[in-house]
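Step 1: inspect the first sequence and its tokens.
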Amino acid sequence: MASWMFEILLGTILVAGLNSGPASDLFEVDVKQLADIWEREHISPPDPYSIRHAELKQHLTRAQSAYPSLIRVEVAGHSVEGREIFLVTMGQGRERLMLWSQMHGDEPTATSALLDLLHFFGRHLQDPWVAGILNKYTLLIIPMLNPDGAERMQRRNAQGIDINRDARALQTAEGQLLKNIRDRYRPFLGFNLHNQNATTTVGDTGRVATIALLAVASDPPPGAAGAPAPARSGVLAKQATAVLYEALSPFVYGHISRYDEEFNPRAFGDNLTLWGTPIVLMESGGNPAGEPPNFGVRLNFVGLLAVFNSLACGKIQNANPAVFDALKQNSDNPIYDIMLQNGWIFTGTGVPPFRGDVAVRADARAGARGTAIIADIGDLGVFTAHRTIDCSTTLITPGLIAWDPRKSLFADGAPDSAYLERGVLTLLATAQWQDLAKNRPASREWMTRPRPVNWGFLLAGSPARSSDRDQLLLAEWLSAGARAWISESFLGMEAVPRWFGIGSIESGEALKYQIPASWEGEICKVLPRFASEAAEKFALPRRGLIAQGTVADLVIWSVPGEAAPVDLSACKPRLVMINGQLIDLAQPDRPSYGRFIGR
């Protein structure tokens, strides 16, 4: 059999498989099979927040090399700092579809999905429904519009301007490029791909909004006196959102919302629509509990393919625009990652414990590199969380901070788990002066060594003489992350610690922060020393306190009964939370969530 006949037969078999799922009036493909294909074939990384401009460039080069007859990559322009902004085109149809991602640098989910789409089209070019899309349309893809923001993982560009609010003034190179591409190709439909706050919920349901959709307003509301009429959305854009809703509901039913559709005179989506290209906004939000970080990548992949197929086969005409109107709007009532309910809260200062809730939120936009924070405290009963823990018979305190003079920075000692069992989540080890000359300052490998606790170090001792070399050595170790210098005699080197804002303290004072043999005494008198006071003494910002915005390092102590605990000797650590990750102290297997505390 000729090879081209085999390819056609294989394509027919594949599309038959994709059509064998539940019938839909809006598309021909089986979305669950598309999801399975993504699971098997996707080339995007597990963490969508890990891609930077250099990685994107490598991915595009490989895709163009693998499928030279399909994928065309050009440098459409440059960012403010000179990074290439790529335009990828596929297909040969006269009608054009335009997609762009990461105009906000810290919103990368769709960037990964677009890379997966490039490889999908290359691998499945012989599938009749795929060929149908590429024969009818030309896809215009800008996978990373704001590479400078992406490099910093920040919303705005290098000028500090929100590109999505630059459609009128066009002060950004990136915004000018987006408009020029629109004006040059005049696509009949565009997809503006973003991430939204991971704590956003769907209406009054309390469910996380995993996907938010918007058919962008096609005209500004009238400026007459009184309450203006709402701006109208384009019919085609509404139909596309209806297709997206049906395609994604099997995966996230109840987690799809409607984005705020008020007309914004500065926004690109609104102005592109006015200029003649209807825009669909798709915002990737927080994931339902248990889903992996790249769950939104799969949803973007499946949803976009379903819309392309719906357009190409004409079934989009069956889509009811009223589906978009019926979607519940995004709600300002957040959903948190963890809620510690109705516990006795000791904030880390001398304030007595009080009843309340503690909400914890991870920084989803930073992925594994992000920091989980205390999002709120007090009466939080009107909010929801992915995980709720009854703390009515517990005391919630900040993770304790302590110095162990016996724990050498350069030698293994007692297992770190022994500190967790005492409620010490941030451990300061000791680096003796006589050992410094034998060891260079901490390498990156050393700083990133996985440990169950957060850890840093104090410098102890002093040289027998002062020399330029000694001062340089001290400066190197202070810059590597030392929290203080414990020395009885400074020998003319007193100024060096001040270069780094590091205090020099007497050894007797430092011993105040040594872990006691047992915890006992009044909570409000004993614990502040190892919480807020230690954090201030050793320059550990956002630690040692339970307050909005502080790091989510917490100890949950069991207490006898429901009365307010007074004496610490009656309390025992039961759970600890390090950077928002809960560790059960009854379990022998304790993952390493701790971090090196450096400069």
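Step 2: inspect the second sequence and its tokens, then contrast the two.
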Amino acid sequence: MIIRVISFVLILFAVQEESSADVVFNCNVNSIVQKMNVYTSSSDKKMDKMAMENQFTKVLKEAGIAPTTNTRVNSGMFENKVMTSFVDSNFEGRIEESGTEIIFTNLDGLKLDQRVVKLPNNQQAVAIATRFLEVSGLISPTKRQELVLTRVGGISQALATRTRHFPHEKKASVVYFNRTVDGFPVRHHGASITVAIGDNFKPVGLNYFWRKIDRKKTMAVSANNFVAVSKVKSLVTKDLALIYDLKAEKIAVDKIYPVYYSGVKYIQPAFCYEGRELSNQIHAHPVLGYVSALVSPPEPVYNPGYMPGLTFDKSDY
């Protein structure tokens, strides 16, 4: 495991952003004087199939599920990642070779073809989900402060058979977690966990995207390696131009604030912007994107709606 951390002080001054012909800025960039880091996590040693099976089995065990001889286990590429998948009559899931992405669903536990008896209340659901993440080794107790409860929701379904229709009911309580590092929200990849709790008071579903970082090793970066606030507007406008035709569409940017952007290999300082697409007279569609806070970022910071290298041939239309 090779870990490298680059540290710098991000200094921003309150500046009223001006408007352009295509993008209207309705916000300031607030003054911040606070240390942020660039975290680099690189490992040449990935889990082999056996290690992935052991990690996934441990997660299932804490959810009250035990693989059987009928469980089908396969390894291969999925969304350009090496994954091991598990499929049985009552559950299915997969784990990525670095262990930073794990997904499973307990089909029986969701009771899609049965009536639910009693679900945990919100407080119980949060306690069950938090303990599950710690006991299964997915969240270290020393890193629990990075885990931020976002909300508690649910999965609902209306059950119907040939002879009877049951009313719409909640099948599971769903606990949503996001992440903070150094007091800043982490966005994009590796920054969210969702745990569904069934009426057996055990996890019946998991979506785990969490990249472990190590802040012990640091390397200073010169002060001129972060973006001046006066440049933020032009960076946001250029980013928006990747997605929108700014000659035909009007965008209002209402918020700009610092975050950590979790990319492929790095978690680096960035600006998140939020706003609205105003061309539609009936609905103002939400807009969200990121631009790097570094002059020389360790890897690109992409708009969530932008796919590098994707091109279209006009002859196809």
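Step 3: confirm your contrast with the notes below.
Residues 1-5, 11-21, 311-317 have pLDDT under 50 and may be disordered. The longest strand covers residues 165-181.
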